[in-house]
């Protein structure tokens, strides 16, 4: 049971993320089938219904979202995870002058890993300030917990995709992982957009005036691409692979 408890946060994150990805995939599947997608004669209707229950059972996604952040905050309060010091460091960074150095992004996905580091600062900024403001009352601010949880989930999933792709590149080559690189970049791009929205909602719920302006500036700094990839081209890279093979082409790791 100790092992299960140790990874309970990751379990909640994965339950929410994967059940919603399944739902979105089957929904896109219905769209691809067009009118027939809506009919029980085509397989997508059942796929969508089967996916729908996963958002409800084994703890609804709303409850798992709140659990993920709630458990993390509890671990931090018990001293099992050090959130306070990194959160304070981000607080100090907000009032300091940003670095204007041009980083070296020559390694594949290194800019993306740099973005992940910045997104973690967004989580620390929002969750750290929320804990400071509300203390043990945080549990009552459920909408704020849900927003913080979406930030946590998106960071976890985007980082996992990038790390997995980096591993695959080391095992094979950049060329062989072209589509996986594109998918990781696309995932990160959509994660950044979700995080921008959810962090903005969270910040506006507990900060006003100068403090709010400073945190929103921090949010802008921590979600800014130095080189925004060509999003449409990335989608084309993935679509070309699927249409080229005329089947699901990503069964191999
Ligand atoms: C096909 C199927 C199989 C199942 N199998 C099992 C099983 O094997 N074992 C088992 O124990 N159970 C099983 N269940 C039960 C399932 O786990 C529950 O349906 C689920 O936990 C949700 O509980 P509920 O239906 O009482 O909804 P409620 O708890 O009443 O929730 C209703 C809605 O309100 C939301 N909500 C509730 N509280 C909050 C909150 N504080 N903030 C935000 N939103 C909130 C929920 O997310 C949900 O969307 C099954 C259910 C189904 C439909």
Describe this structure in words.
Residues 118-221 form the Acyl-CoA dehydrogenase-like C-terminal domain. GO terms for molecular function: short-chain fatty acyl-CoA dehydrogenase activity. Its EC number is 1.3.8.1. This protein has 253 residues and is mainly alpha-helical. It is 73% helix and 0% strand. The longest helix has 30 residues, at 142-171. Helix 2 packs antiparallel against helix 4 (61-77) and helix 7 runs antiparallel to helix 8. The protein has helices at 2-6, 8-33, 43-54, 61-77, 84-94, 110-134, 142-171, 178-206, 209-222, 231-245. The protein has 2 domains: 1-59, no CATH class; 82-245, Butyryl-CoA Dehydrogenase, subunit A, domain 3. The model has no long low-confidence stretch (mean pLDDT 95). The chain binds flavin-adenine dinucleotide (FAD). Flavin-adenine dinucleotide (FAD) binds at residues 53, 56-57, 60, 62-63, 142.
Which kinds of small molecule does this entry bind, naming each only once? flavin-adenine dinucleotide
- Count of individual beta strands: 0
CATH class of the largest domain: Mainly Alpha
Query: Structurally, how many domains make up the residues?
Result: 2
Structural class: mainly alpha
Roughly how many Å apart are the termini? 30 Å
The CATH architecture of the largest domain comes to Up-down Bundle
Largest sheet: none
Order of helices and strands: HHHHHHHHHH
Report mean pLDDT, rounded to a whole number: 95
What share of residues is helical?
A: over 70%
Overall spatial form: globular
Task: Tell me the CATH superfamily of the largest domain.
Answer: Butyryl-CoA Dehydrogenase, subunit A, domain 3
**Which residues sit in consecutive blocks of at least 5 with pLDDT less than 50?**
none
Q: What name does the CATH topology of the largest domain carry?
A: Butyryl-CoA Dehydrogenase, subunit A, domain 3
Rg on CA atoms, Å: 20 Å
The number of distinct helices, counting runs of at least 4 residues, comes to 10
**What percent strand?**
under 5%
Enzyme class: oxidoreductase
EC number: 1.3.8.1
Protein name: Butyryl-CoA dehydrogenase
GO molecular function: short-chain fatty acyl-CoA dehydrogenase activity
